[in-house]
Amino acid sequence: MALLEFDDVHVTYRSGGVVVPAVRGVTLAVDAGESVGIAGESGCGKTTLTSTVLRLQPKTAAVTGAVRVDGEDVLGMSWGKVRALRWGTASVVFQGAMHALNPVQRIGTQIAEPILLHDSAVGEAEAKRRVGELLEMVGLPARRAQNYPHQLSGGQKQRVMIAMALACRPRLVVADEPTTALDVMVQAQVLDVLSGLVRELGLGLIFISHDLSVLSTSCDRIAVMYAGRIVEEGPAGEVFDHPQHPYAGALAGAFPRIGDTRFRYAPAGLPGDPPFPGDLPGGCAFHPRCPVAMAECATHEPPLLAVGDRRTACLRVSAEGVR
Ligand SMILES: Nc1ncnc2c1ncn2[C@@H]1O[C@H](COP(=O)(O)OP(=O)(O)OP(=O)(O)O)[C@@H](O)[C@H]1O
Ligand SMILES: [Mg+2]
User: Fold this and answer.
1) Number of H-type helices and E-type strands within the chain
2) How many Å apart are CA 196 and CA 147, to the nearest integer?
3) Location of each CATH 3.40.50.300 domain in the chain
4) Ligand 1 atom 29: the closest Cα is on which residue?
């Protein structure tokens, strides 16, 4: 049994008469000790999908399918169980969350808060010791606990957010674009911290990023999303080096290497914009932008087909076989 399973998850926002199918049938599993990257353009549903793990979706969102943690469906859980799940079993490093640190509280106090709230057996001294341990785990000296957020750089604040997510020793962490705002050197350090935690603590990690090259170096597997669906999924190196879906090819082709076959799809970026989920084109949602679309791509939505350890949703790939 996987630590986390999304089973045919659909999430539809309904507000002001507008219906937005933001996630359309996602099936994906994450094991303990495994890191899974989710890539895709802005608005493709990455945050919406992962918000269901802790039941954080807004009231305007209807969710169907199942989201199982340790085999138990989160969508049907009592609120008491959801509260224990949050922080305790699973936690999220939210997109842009480093800006949400309380500016008038010391870092240490903020990291200690969930520890004290979730474990009544832990006293102030023990919480302080654990805060020091957590800071060191993310590569910051324990004395940083005394600092206020304005005394830290962006990268250091992002590490504090990761330390906070680990405060109650969860087994599953969702990191939503934890490195997007950081320079490449600090980004590499934060990625090292996260992959170290997956290895040392046996964490299950979902790592969301626009940047396929980042995911290819730091994750075991990658799922590429387009317009609310997974269009390609498989071992990270294979998806990056030999993408099968034309959209995954275009994403990977945005990081060119001389003589690289990934140039085949989109050496100069993709034409057009990602579709608005409330107004998707018929057939394959990618077909209006696809450099290799066929006539039937406008009328048939391709299923996500598994071949070996890879899954791809593309009529051309299913017609021509694995490249
Ligand atoms: N509360 C909401 N009500 C209505 N629509 C929403 C809501 N939240 C998100 N959406 C829409 O759902 C779609 C998916 O949004 P989501 O935030 O999941 O995208 P994302 O892949 O995380 O994008 P980004 O890379 O920019 O963070 C978008 O089209 C967005 O406009
Ligand atoms: Mg997002």
Assistant:
1) 10, 12
2) 25
3) 4-89+170-320
4) 43
**CB neighbour class for 90 (10 Å; exposed up to 12, middle 13-18, buried from 19):** buried
Q: Is there a contact between 88 and 168 (Cβ–Cβ < 8 Å)? A: yes
* For ligand 1, atom 28: residue with the closest CA: 43
Assign domain 4-89+170-320 to its CATH superfamily.
Answer: P-loop containing nucleotide triphosphate hydrolases (3.40.50.300)
Closest CA to 2 of 55, 100, 58, 69: 69
- Please name every residue paired with 312 in a beta bridge, in sequence order, or none if there are none: 232, 305
Which ligand 1 atom minimizes the distance to the CA of 51?
18
- Largest separation between any pair of C-alpha atoms in the chain: 67
pLDDT 10s digits, 6-32:
999 999 999 888 899 999 999 999 999
Task: Quote the CA–CA distance of 189 and 154 in Å, as a whole number.
Answer: 12
- Cβ–ligand 1 distance for 22 under 6 Å, the answer yes
For the whole prediction, is pTM greater than 0.70? yes
